[in-house]
Amino acid sequence: ISVLNLKPSKCVIMPTSEPFENDTVSHIRNWLVSNIPEWHDFAIKPCGKYLGFQLGPQAGQCQWNEAIPKYISRAYEIGKTHAAVSITSHLYNTSAVSVLLYIAQFVGLPPNFGFTERKAMSALLHVATNAFTHNTFFNLPTAGGPKLQSPMAAALASRFRMAWHTRHL
């Protein structure tokens, strides 16, 4: 009806019944081969990405599977430059933290993210992971150090702003 051309590599079939098992996948695949052969190459997964967010019955389990490794990778790459701390902190705030904020404005970061955040900032500043407490990283400006943005604090602020604007429309 819509004359929409589907690109099989971008399509995901997400069964909404639980549990998601290999039998489910093979049953759906067999049905597709028999009834809609053009769709036989579609991925069949418990969740899939749409506009940057994971959707589907198991979306919560895979919501951060791409964003957090990308955040860590960017923080490590910035640290490897050995640039001045003023530059690395700016790059971290704009290039690494921003990777998480699009999703985090709607979905909370995982409960254990604080440790991940400390690892990223330790790599960025070339210090041992336990050299500073978690809060010390964000209090460095009081001692003349760089201002590092906390993804957890930024995510909470973003979700608060969204809730505030939604309530006051």
Question: Any overview of this molecule?
Answer:
The chain has helices spanning 22-35, 59-62, 67-80, 85-104, 113-125, 134-138, 151-167, and strands at residues 12-13, 43-44, 48-50, 53-55. The protein is built from 7 helices and 4 strands. Helix 3 runs antiparallel to helix 4, helix 3 runs parallel beside helix 5 (113-125) and helix 4 (85-104) crosses helix 7. The chain has a two-stranded parallel ribbon with strand order 1-2. The model has no long low-confidence stretch (mean pLDDT 86). The two termini are 36 Å apart. The protein is mainly alpha-helical and 169 residues long.
In short, what is this structure?
By secondary structure, this protein is mainly alpha-helical.
Entry keywords:
169 residues; mainly alpha; two-stranded parallel sheet; two-stranded antiparallel sheet; 7 helices
Please describe the topology of this protein.
Layout: E1 12-13, H1 22-35, E2 43-44, E3 48-50, E4 53-55, H2 59-62, H3 67-80, H4 85-104, H5 113-125, H6 134-138, H7 151-167
Helix pairs in contact: 3-4, 3-5, 4-7
Number of strands: 4
- Strand numbers in spatial order across the main sheet: 1-2
Number of helices: 7
Level of helix content? Answer: 40-55%
Radius of gyration: 21 Å
Largest sheet: 2 strands, parallel
Distance between the termini: 36 Å
* Mean residue pLDDT: 86
Q: Uncertain segments of ≥5 residues (pLDDT<50)?
A: none
